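Morning run. Coffee first, then this:
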Amino acid sequence: QVQLVESGGGLVQAGGSLRLSCAFSGRTFSIYTMGWFRQAPGKEREFVAAITRSGSSTFYADSVKGRFTMSRDNAKNTVYLQMNSLKPEDTAVYYCAADPKLSTRGSEYDYWGQGTQVTVSS
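And here it is:
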């Protein structure tokens, strides 16, 4: 089974930066597309970013495009989400997800991490 463990969340002031990490284990990492999703209190889970198997292409939600950057290091079995210019509305639990197929829809992903809390103060 695939196991995903997120880390790097925390409290940051608006305008600041955080880098989230997601450690992948259990299967061959390079055959999986990876996604980041987030869920704020009272809201539905929403797509944040996705990356292809090789890392050659990335996709972002309009709300984070230009501020967030997703990357992967297949040698380390790890994906990252660099978050810059953070806003209070970015506050949410951030989840890492994996699936062999590329998708921006959470329902398409079979494997999920436990999540890491990101809180952005104004």
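The longest strand covers residues 18-25. Good start to the day.
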